[in-house]
């Protein structure tokens, strides 16, 4: 344990957990995909799907922090995720923004975008995007201080945003199987988040 604590406090560990290093790591997939698209080794559909999928995966990781903290309350890696949860949430929005930019670059006509947005699969995606924008803009210490207790209430909107994201994914995909798999993972994690405190209270009541 002493060796583990020493490694955690080492200069290399502090560097690897620095926010700027995390941002660089999170940005690497976007850099590679955009470069591949520019070189035409990836086509529009691939980049659109990859950016959308990664945005959802980052959103799931962000929402998984609370269930993981309940499962592994003393784990150092969970505490690390908790400290970086806001970074991950902003990165999830960043990839959803990139997903949107790729779509608009392919369809730059406003009339087409508005007509397309009238479809159920699309307006749910746009609504999820704007909800995530609000969350990303308030994912900073200044917003936490300004909003006070209202900050947590506002950020519960993430559950609505996640639901809309999956509606958009499942109804717009040619094959929604992967979307259903990701949805199942998120539902399982949220079920754990609700169930673990219940069983903990029940166990405490039984012992007393």
Summarize the structure in words.
There is one protein chain. The protein has 208 residues and is mainly α. Helices cover 85% and strands 0% of the residues. It has helices at 2-8, 11-16, 19-38, 44-71, 76-83, 85-106, 110-117, 120-137, 141-147, 150-155, 157-172, 177-207. The model has no long low-confidence stretch (mean pLDDT 89).
Low-confidence stretches: none
Largest sheet: none
**Spatial extent as radius of gyration:** 20 Å
The tally of helices reads 12
Mean pLDDT, rounded to whole units? 89
Element-by-element helix/strand order:
HHHHHHHHHHHH
Give the CA-CA distance, first to last residue: 34 Å
Count of beta strands: 0
Determine the structural class based on helices, strands and strand pairing.
mainly alpha
Q: Which percent range describes the beta-strand content?
A: under 5%
- CA-based shape: globular
Could you estimate the helical fraction of the residues in percent? over 70%
């Amino acid at each position: 344990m002493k060796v583990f604590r020493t490694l955690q406090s080492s200069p290399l560990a502090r560097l690897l957990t620095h926010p700027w290093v995390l941002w660089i790591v999170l940005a690497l997939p976007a850099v590679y995909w955009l470069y591949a698209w520019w070189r035409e080794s990836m086509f529009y559909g691939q980049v659109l799907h990859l950016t959308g999928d990664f945005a959802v995966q980052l959103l799931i990781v962000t929402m998984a922090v609370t269930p993981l903290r309940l499962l592994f309350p003393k784990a150092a890696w969970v505490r690390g995720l908790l400290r970086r949860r806001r970074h991950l949430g902003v990165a999830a929005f960043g990839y959803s923004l990139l997903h949107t930019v790729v779509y608009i670059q392919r369809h730059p006509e406003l009339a087409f975008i508005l007509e397309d947005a009238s479809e159920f699969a699309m307006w749910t995606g746009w609504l999820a995007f704007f909800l995530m924008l609000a969350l990303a803009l308030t994912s900073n210490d200044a917003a936490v201080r300004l909003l006070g207790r209202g900050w947590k209430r506002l950020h519960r909107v993430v559950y609505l945003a996640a639901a809309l994201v999956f509606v958009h994914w499942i109804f717009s995909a040619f094959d929604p199987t992967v979307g259903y798999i990701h949805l199942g993972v998120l539902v399982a994690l949220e079920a754990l988040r609700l169930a673990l405190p219940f069983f903990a209270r029940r166990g405490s009541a039984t012992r007393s």
